[in-house]
Amino acid sequence: MSLLELENVTLKFGGVTAVDDVSFAVEEGEVFALVGPNGAGKSTIFNLISRIYDPFAGDIRFQGQSLLDRQPYEIAGLGIARTFQNIELFEQASVLQNLLVGRHKHRKSNPVGEMFFTPFVRREEKRHRKAVEEVIDFLDLQPYREKFIAGLPYGVRKVVEMGRALAIEPKLLLLDEPASGLSVEETQDVAFWIEDIKKLMGITVLMVEHDMSLVSAVSDRVMALADGRMLAIGTPEEVQRDPKVIEAYIGSDDAEDAA
Ligand SMILES: Nc1ncnc2c1ncn2[C@@H]1O[C@H](COP(=O)(O)OP(=O)(O)OP(=O)(O)O)[C@@H](O)[C@H]1O
């Protein structure tokens, strides 16, 4: 059984078919990338998996169970965490506080227990702190742990967003353009982290990314899309060599990314 399966998924926005009969499966333990020119449907696929949109047709399954009868707020609890293209963190809160928010789905205590700070609540709090401290160490965020997000450089914020998703202890991590806006050096760091997330944490990664150097460095498999349709699926090399993929990029705004 694949970890995540999309089967004949279609979504239309008015007259635009953003995702057109798309099927693919992500296997446990792999890094799988979605690539394609602007408007190909990549972010819409993430929003479908996150249950922000209902597909017009088709099914989306996680660990064999359909996600279509789930609400968006249930998705993290099932073990799917995501980052956003436009970083979504609490600006006036510290790195530590932002990561603790990621632990929300693990909270088992009730409001009365929290009011009286019972031994159970204390133990639970310790467990959350430990999990978050591990993520802080893992992502080298120690120097920033008490700093407010508002004062942090863009590259660090992106790492914090990845940390918040990891603090959920997901089985599947959805990374929406993890390298966008980053320097070459920062992108290399992201590549190392993705490798470690896969190898050391055993987390499966599905990512949307325009930077083909990052895609080639970390992905086991890649699916290329254009105009909502699947063009090719395979190793990064196979997909980059595919004539349909080359043609889709030529003349698009993203021609340089494909080079
Ligand atoms: N909420 C929406 N309402 C109407 N049309 C939308 C909406 N979201 C996306 N679209 C359209 O659906 C198509 C796919 O968009 P999507 O954002 O998924 O592409 P993408 O591959 O993620 O592009 P990019 O690389 O630019 O982020 C585009 O034609 C887009 O204009």
From TrEMBL:
<dbReference type="GO" id="GO:0016887">
    <property type="term" value="F:ATP hydrolysis activity"/>
</dbReference>
<dbReference type="InterPro" id="IPR032823">
    <property type="entry name" value="BCA_ABC_TP_C"/>
</dbReference>
<dbReference type="InterPro" id="IPR003439">
    <property type="entry name" value="ABC_transporter-like_ATP-bd"/>
</dbReference>
<keyword id="KW-0813">Transport</keyword>
<dbReference type="Pfam" id="PF12399">
    <property type="entry name" value="BCA_ABC_TP_C"/>
</dbReference>
<dbReference type="InterPro" id="IPR027417">
    <property type="entry name" value="P-loop_NTPase"/>
</dbReference>
<dbReference type="InterPro" id="IPR051120">
    <property type="entry name" value="ABC_AA/LPS_Transport"/>
</dbReference>
<protein>
    <submittedName>
        <fullName>ABC transporter ATP-binding protein</fullName>
    </submittedName>
</protein>
<dbReference type="Pfam" id="PF00005">
    <property type="entry name" value="ABC_tran"/>
</dbReference>
<keyword id="KW-0067">ATP-binding</keyword>
<feature type="domain" description="ABC transporter">
    <location>
        <begin position="4"/>
        <end position="252"/>
    </location>
</feature>
<dbReference type="GO" id="GO:0005886">
    <property type="term" value="C:plasma membrane"/>
</dbReference>
<dbReference type="InterPro" id="IPR003593">
    <property type="entry name" value="AAA+_ATPase"/>
</dbReference>
<dbReference type="GO" id="GO:0005524">
    <property type="term" value="F:ATP binding"/>
</dbReference>
<keyword id="KW-0547">Nucleotide-binding</keyword>
